[in-house]
């Protein structure tokens, strides 16, 4: 069996209504294009999904990551879905398509991308996490806990095949630089960086020498920053991630466990507020209260010769009900702060929102204080 690539590519190409959810017609459009490509053998398999207002295309193929044909196909699907969104006058039709024409790689053109290539194991469980109303750094805490926290992942302590830990690839998304760091050896340094989640983000996690090849990622996160492409606020960079599980990697339950916290993330209304991340069932991924609170869904698959056997709606489990209850309470508490920090983001994170336009008008009225 040669290597399989999974490409998870997402974009907001029109909300229904406002920024709440994706209209079924957009998913049907995507399914019809991708079915034709599957029939032609261009891709092995696909699943069209959505979280909040983001359309998600998950595709398997054997062309490797950053492949121009696969990225071009995703672009074509997003353009056709945009045409449909315009016809239905959905909100923000084509919002995340920041370029007029495709130029070889969809990265930097608006959509978010998480891709990984690996030798398919005898049994290959993969989870696709998809978030809405937040940013790539929202994955820092759960990905760290999955691969580095022994209080989350029992296997780090008791399973000899993962006891040695993992390697983290951390990106500085402001400077566009990256650093490879070993866990547990450099755990405190990793945390020193990724605790600053609006700047340092986990891009990939790799296994150390052992059961799995060291150059095949166990996890990958989309890290595209929309404002860097658009030069202005055009919605948050709602992220996605792919995580492989079991047999030399954290177990499925260890992969899901960090999401039971309902941790605080940045995004929510106008990409300008901190709030709790709610793990929810596919059908509940509709962002309405104050355009949120931020959501995460988890689609579970077994991969069989590139076929996507799934998805299983993993957060549908009532075992996450208590998390959701806590998220409701925190949502209520945070909302009562209205425009005050720390519900509203600190000034440095507001730089790319619409707030500076409001403050500019006040600028001239400032005089020297005593
Ligand atoms: O009314 P506008 O100009 O679309 O901008 C505000 C919208 O931007 C958002 O932050 C966009 O969220 P998304 O990033 O999910 O598209 C919404 O919360 C809000 O309704
Ligand atoms: Mg969105």
Low-confidence stretches: none
The CA-CA distance between the termini, in Å, is 75 Å
**Apparent shape:** globular
Oligomeric form of this entry? single chain
Structural domain tally: 1
Bound molecules: 1,6-di-O-phosphono-beta-D-fructofuranose, magnesium ion
Name the beta content range.
25-35%
Function: Catalyzes two subsequent steps in gluconeogenesis: the aldol condensation of dihydroxyacetone phosphate (DHAP) and glyceraldehyde-3-phosphate (GA3P) to fructose-1,6-bisphosphate (FBP), and the dephosphorylation of FBP to fructose-6-phosphate (F6P).
Catalytic activity: beta-D-fructose 1,6-bisphosphate + H2O = beta-D-fructose 6-phosphate + phosphate; beta-D-fructose 1,6-bisphosphate = D-glyceraldehyde 3-phosphate + dihydroxyacetone phosphate
Subunit structure: Homooctamer; dimer of tetramers.
GO molecular function: fructose 1,6-bisphosphate 1-phosphatase activity; fructose-bisphosphate aldolase activity; magnesium ion binding
Walkthrough of the structure:
Keywords: Carbohydrate metabolism, Gluconeogenesis, Hydrolase, Lyase, Magnesium, Metal-binding, Schiff base. Belongs to the FBP aldolase/phosphatase family. Mg(2+) 4 binds at residue 237. Mg(2+) 1 binds at residues 12, 19, 53, 95. With 370 residues, the chain is of the alpha+beta class. It has helices at residues 24-39, 68-87, 140-148, 155-158, 187-194, 226-230, 252-256, 321-335, 347-350, 355-363; strands at residues 3-11, 45-51, 54-61, 112-119, 124-132, 166-172, 177-183, 200-207, 219-221, 240-244, 264-267, 273-276, 278-279, 295-304, 307-313. It has ten helices and 15 strands. Helices cover 26% and strands 26% of the residues. Helix 1 packs antiparallel against helix 2. The chain has one domain (3-346). The strands form three sheets. Strands 5, 6, 7, 8, 9, 10, 13, 14 and 15 form a nine-stranded mixed beta sheet that branches. A four-stranded antiparallel beta sheet has the order 2-3-1-4, with helices on one face. A two-stranded antiparallel ribbon has the order 11-12. The chain is globular and about 70 Å long. It binds 1,6-di-O-phosphono-beta-D-fructofuranose (FBP) and magnesium ion (MG). The site of magnesium ion has 7 residues, from loops.
